[in-house]
Design a protein that fits this description.
five-stranded mixed sheet, 13 strands, globular, binds oxa(dethia)-CoA
């Protein structure tokens, strides 16, 4: 038994912040942001718009694409680092919005890799026969926890959500998922406050995403390079068999390095970073849905999904779409 992607959906908030807008906030410029990251603009959740709001739009679009009704869904698994509340979790909040009652619903927190973790876990539920119609979402309002005075990080992030519906299938589907973490790197990329820390930094206005960008960059390129090789080997697939790379959208230079590692021309890589920035857990399902809807990704093609984020965490999925 395998799981297969029956439909995809995504959502971006209406409000757009351009590089020119950021020039008015911090000492930066469009040329630096474009050349170092590939980002031109990003979408920002409006006041009062929450992660669950974004997730609901993406989920409804994925359900429509898969031709499933809320009553069909028997598992909800959301990847997010920016939940509306401490609890109930975003999975339960989304469940209520969709009018679904009783099935397991939870969120998984693994920074930018959260969607890959959610997909990996939901895939196991489906393969084991414990779910017949799983809703898997990556949704973030990461701009809510950004330090808007830190030019090294505030130019990078955007908000959004992406979703897939997984169903059982005798044919793959998801051939394999790989999930990893190494907490040794916890100090290179973090948000340094939270419930158990007492929110002291938040109260003092000193909290915000912190990143040693250059060090993260180097580990990300090496780690993702190893991850794509490991994933292909685990499935006995050669890199020449891949149709599309659907990477996490953190930096165009990282994406290009991984494409090079796979000998894939950039025409076979889904790149949304210019328009969306780094939407953390939402970036891979957003890229996937973008390319499914514009007709680039077609049924039967072989896709490699990958992400890397704080923790560090990293994960991948090899998918016959
Ligand atoms: O999604 C989770 C995983 N995240 C990632 O994988 C992100 C990995 N890191 C990166 O993508 C890159 O390291 C960044 C885009 C964050 C930074 O690019 P970089 O080429 O590594 O730049 P840098 O941090 O080494 O900084 C180079 C220079 C510095 O100035 P000096 O010291 O050379 O004078 C920075 O102060 O660029 C300066 N700088 C900026 N200048 C204009 C940093 N941010 C900005 C900015 N605008 N926004």
């Amino acid at each position: 038994m395998y799981s297969t992607i029956a439909g995809t959906g995504s959502y971006l908030p209406e409000k757009i912040l351009t590089n020119a807008d950021l020039e008015k906030l911090v000492d930066t410029n469009d040329e630096w942001i474009r050349s170092r990251t590939g980002i031109e603009r990003r979408h920002i959740a409006s006041e009062g718009e929450t992660t669950t709001d974004l997730a609901e739009h993406a989920a409804r679009r994925a359900m429509q694409a898969a031709g499933v009704a809320p009553g069909d869904i028997d598992l909800i698994c959301v990847g997010t680092t920016t939940p509306d509340l401490v609890f109930p979790n975003v999975g339960s909040l989304l469940q209520d919005r969709l009018g679904i009652h009783g099935c397991p619903a939870f969120s998984m927190e693994a920074a930018c890799t959260s969607f890959m973790y959610a997909l990996g876990v939901a895939d196991k539920f489906v393969r084991l026969g414990d779910a017949k119609c799983a809703l898997v979402v990556g949704a973030e309002t990461l701009t809510r926890i950004v330090d808007w005075k830190d030019r090294g990080t505030c130019v990078l992030f955007g908000d959004g959500a992406g979703a897939v519906i997984l169903k059982p299938s005798a044919e793959p589907g998801i051939l394999c998922t790989r999930l990893h973490s190494d907490g040794r790197y916890k100090d290179l990329l973090l948000y340094p406050d939270g419930v158990s820390k007492g929110f002291a930094l938040v109260r003092e206005g000193k909290a915000g995403v912190q990143m040693k960008g250059n060090e993260v960059y180097k580990v990300a390129v090496n780690t993702l390079g190893g991850l794509v090789t490991e994933t292909l080997q685990a499935c006995g697939i050669g890199k020449e068999q891949l149709d599309w790379l659907v990477p996490h959208q953190a930096n165009i230079r990282i994406i290009e390095a991984i494409a090079k590692r796979l000998d894939m021309p950039m025409e076979r890589v889904i790149v949304t970073i210019a328009e969306q920035g780094n939407t953390s857990a939402a970036s891979v399902p957003l890229a996937l849905d973008t390319a499914v809807r514009d007709g680039r990704i077609r049924r039967g093609q072989l896709l490699l999904l990958e992400a890397f984020g704080g923790g560090f965490t990293w994960g991948s999925a090899l998918v016959r779409y």
